[in-house]
Amino acid sequence: MDTLVWVIITNAVVWIGLGAYLIFLALQQHNLAARLTQWEMLRHD
Amino acid sequence: MLELHRVARLYGHKVVFRDVSCTCAAGSITLLAGNNGAGKSALLRIMAGLSRPSSGTAHFTMPAPRVGYLAHATFVYPALTALENLTFWREAYGLDIAPADLLAGLERVGLAAHAHEHAGVFSRGMAQRLNLARVLMLEPDILLLDEPGAGLDADSLALLHQEILSARKRGACVTLVSHDLVNDVPLADRVLLLKAGKLAFNGPVTHFRELAGGTEQACCA
Amino acid sequence: MLRLTLAVARKDLSLTLWRGNGLMQALLLGLLIFFVFSLSQEVGENLSPQSAAAVFWLSSTFCQVLIFNQLYALEEVNNSRLGLLLSPAPIPAVWLGKAIAGFILLLFAQLLFLPAAVVFLGQSLHGPLPPAVAILLLADTGMCALGSLLGALAQGQAARESLLSIVLFPLLTPLLLAGIGVGAQIFGNPSPNGPGAWMGIACAFDAIFLATGLLLFSFIYAGEE
Amino acid sequence: MRSLSIVPAMLVLSGSLTFACCQWLIYSYAPTEATMGLTQKIFYIHLPLAWWALFSFFLVFVGSVSYLLKRAPGADRLCAAAAETGVLLSGLALVTGTLWARKAWGVWWTWDPRLTTTLIMWFIYAGYLVLRGLNPPPQRKSLVCAVVGIAAFLDVPLVFVSARIWRSIHPAVFAAKDGGLEPEMKLTALGCVVSFGLFWAGLLWLRKRQLDLRDRLDTLASAAQQQ
After folding, report:
1. Which of A34, A35, B52, C162 is the most exposed place for a label (fewest CB within 10 A)?
2. Chain-chain contact of D222 with B14 (C-beta, under 8 angstroms)
């Protein structure tokens, strides 16, 4: 395989990994936000 | 003998109790009462120095007191004989007691005949008597009891009460966690009542009785 | 402090060696590992000295995890842990006592594993023995110092053995490399460097984790439920 | 509700952007290495990953020590966030390392001391994360994790030295990878490390803040339950 393609694949793997972690963080944040709104609604009742 | 100052205990995020201040004097029996989950055992562990309060301070007023702690768990090694159990605890606590006195200690709790039997075959009552022998061997200055009577027969219970009273006579500071207020209130000099995360009552037992026949009932329920 | 240490060590040894099924489980597991690896040899062929040394230390490590699990489980039966914590002696004495008991048990197990390496893996002992014995003792010391510190960590958890293994195994890597490196030399794979460098590693490991155990044990071994 | 600071998100973004700019340095400014050719360019992403992973583990160590001293729950959460990012980055460093070895020397794995140390660290801290995922009483879990966090970091230099001796006893098959770097290469590598550091700081900050938020929500929930 061409060396350049190999290098690009390597970089892609790294950024896919980092991106996956960022997506995980975003999902967690989403859950937390949902919990927060739910809690605020409960408090206003 | 024992002083707690604004002690609080958290379990994760949950406040078990907070702002508990009290003192326990030498030669007195303090009854620690409260519902399930009120944190009686947690408070007793803090008194014993087994766990740190989440805030506040707990300390002994005398230097290096001997602390005896008797809980539901028997601290017994099933594969050792009664005498070996006691010998181990003597070594672990660094006490200088002759083997003959260890046997006398077993005699005192009525286990002399079983000294060379493995503790694994003991009934709960016998194991708890062995545990009591361990505590008595210490001659504790501070005696902390966490419902040690649960599941004991009448004889063992009577022995326990007798030893609690003689500890008071000796000048020890006794704290007793109890569910069984009807039986244990008569022993006590003072009462601490934990309720809704706070110390709801802290005073002499006579006052506690006057205050609420009702509270007593509520606690027993 | 010394009295509590000796009391714990003596009690643990007598409970594991003479009462109950004690060391059997750990020994059998270790011997089974030797047997399974003997299957990797083709007819008329022996495992290379290095592989044999690796198998020896693999067995020892598994054995050590089981030993420390068992030693700390003794206090869980009737919650005697609290009884030990109430002792006026400093808590690290318990760590030292358990480490000593574990050390003797591990050495005992290794006495059996060595002939197993000779029999199942077709090894013979070459080379000077004193450095081999020294590295064995040094590696065992480090393993027990760390094992005794972390043995209490899984207290009250399900699947304690596997939890302890995954935390302990990678931390023991330097000792395992040292043990395997010197072991290979003893089984007849001479190296120009000799065991000197490995001794240094093992000593450093021992020093660091003996100090860590002494300092940090009381945080792990506590009355918190 | 007080709106959250945008600083960490900006850090992540600016880290990515500057790292993108570094690509120019990597491919135009730095000379192509004589023996390995283009493959050596992997080095410029491998190095920052490994460095910041190691630094994350150092943070776990610092956080653990400060937790044991002060018992501040925040230190415990810092350890959690740093261990996570550390495992992520060292995992990626391992992947780039194997890909590099495969292209440069035709093998997937070399027992290079640095790569070996990274692998062992990954194992150690992955185990640490497993420990964190368990559910013992909260205060006890923090204490146990702090002790393991300290022991783990003390182990790192030992692992490195032993991996080094391990290799020198067996004749070295491969020479040191990046012994003599040309000045341009050094500058490029430095740029990559710094810009990736921005990204790393943002990531860590985001995760730490998230854990703080979760903790506060838990507190509110249990307070509400008690009333």
Report:
1. A34
2. yes
CB contact under 8 A, A21 and D42: no
One-letter amino acid identity for D55?
A: F
Q: What subunits make at least 3 CB pairs under 8 angstroms with A? A: D
Mean per-residue pLDDT, D88-100: 93
Backbone angles phi, psi at B28, to 5 degrees: -140, 160
Q: Search chain A and give the residue with CA nearest D49.
A: A14
Domain that holds residue C191: 2-222
Give the burial string for D87-115 (b: 16+ CB within 10 Å, else e). bbbbbbbbbbbbbbbbbbeeeeebebbbb
**Distance (Å) from the C-alpha of residue A10 to the closest C-alpha of chain D?**
6
Nearest-5° angle of CA B12, CA B18, CA B19?
155
Residue A41 CB coordination number (10 Å): 9
Asked if B81 has any chain C CB less than 8 Å from its own CB, the reply is no
Residues of chain C with Cβ-Cβ distance to D148 below 8 Å are 150, 153, 167
Q: Six-digit token pair at D185?
A: 């290469």
Q: How far is CA C190 from the centre of its chain?
A: 26
CB–CB of D92 and A25 under 8 A? no
Q: For chain A, what are the domain ranges? A: 1-45
Q: A26 CB near a chain D CB, below 8 Å?
A: no
Report the C-alpha gap between C134 and C147 in whole angstroms: 20
C-alpha angle with apex D126: D124 to D132, nearest 5 degrees? 110
Report pLDDT digits (tens) over D151-168.
999 999 999 888 888 876
Tell me the sheet residues that pair with B47. none
Alpha-carbon distances, residue C180 vs B96, C189, D219 (angstroms): 47, 11, 50
Express each pLDDT in B30-82 by its tens digit: 988 888 878 888 899 999 888 888 888 888 888 888 899 998 888 999 999 99
How many CB contacts within 8 angstroms connect chain B with chain D?
21
What one-letter code names the amino acid at D116?
T
Could you state, in order of their start, the residue ranges of all structural domains in chain D? 7-170+182-221
pTM of the model: 0.88
Q: What domain count does chain C have?
A: 1
Q: Which CATH class is domain D7-170+182-221?
A: mainly alpha
CB atoms inside a 10 Å sphere around CB B20? 23
